[in-house]
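Weekly structure sync, notes
Attendees: PL (lead), two postdocs, one rotation student
Agenda item 3: pending single-chain targets
PL asked that the sequence for the first pending target be pasted directly into the notes so everyone works from the same version. It is reproduced below exactly as submitted, 356 residues in total.
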Amino acid sequence: MADSGSRSTRLGQGALVKALATGASHLRYRTIDPLSGLTPIEVEAKRTHELADGTTRWRVTVSNLAGLEEIVEYDAEGTTLRSTASLIGMELTYRLSDRATAQADGGGAPELIHPDRPIARPRGLRRAVYRLSLPSGELADLPTVASQRVVRASDGSLKVEVSISDGLPTSPSGSIDRPLFLRATAYLDYRAEAVQATLAAIEFPATEGEARNDRQRAELLRRRVHQLMTRKNLAIGFASASEAAASRSGDCTEHAVLLSALLRADGIPARVVSGLLYVERFAGERQVFGYHLWSQGWIEGRWVDLDAMTAAPFDATHIALTTSALDSQEDFVAISASLLPMMGALRIEVVELEQR
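Predicted structure, written out during the meeting:
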């Protein structure tokens, strides 16, 4: 895939260029990674090979990602040509490439899953039951939250029921760490001017003399993000909320972080959900589940699902795999780690479907 620059290059371009120019074989420095907060981290890089074309290969570790080692190749100017990291038994490789190479057909997309049968009118689905399994081994537990209930079968597969309700249940599901889900973070940077301007432009209904309706406000925010993001594409890896608000461009990740940030800015605790969404056409494939990101807001004692990427608020073709407050870079790594064992292996059987 195309590489936007390895972590080590982003953290210390100046130090790296100096080391390359002087022939240094060992580089260590302290810095601050904006994605991880204000706590200083240590980066250590050791030169391991000199290649014939002048490229150098380095082994890079970062203190806030213990156990994760990256092998990176740089040219003489410090540009990342290739980086490889091993994560929970899977090897991730990024290569510098032009647009044509990056978009060329590589022989199938492991992030797309064909269920055992197609789903008609997916955006109108109000209830569905799925059976998830792996050809070998056992799936990790999935969250039972909001609209989703999960039961493990004796064979290790998971029965997942997704049910959409127009109203909230009468009994709340419990309490949450409100400060955690209201915090401004590197990804959910709602104090940034672009996010604040987006919130200020939304006209909420008057609430004088009555309690404000958080469900209504959350839906207004969801619709605003869907309308604001006019350039829906896969060109951006994982932008912050302020970057998404300024560019008005991105895929499900940018929609989810911007909506979650706006919810927090409006006083509604929020988090993101990483999971699957059924679509009728994507990347040349038809009737597939693809990996997806959406938002949840804590409203009247429960998490409420909100997807800014789709025109409709939510439907029962969403399958939640993990949730995150996106509090730090480690949270992003945890999301990726939870999805990797399923890539190219997950099987989905459609058991029951019920339209609105």
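Discussion points:
- The first helix runs from residue 7 to 11.
- Confidence is low (pLDDT under 50) at residues 1-11, 105-110, 167-171.
Action: rotation student to compare against the earlier draft before next sync.
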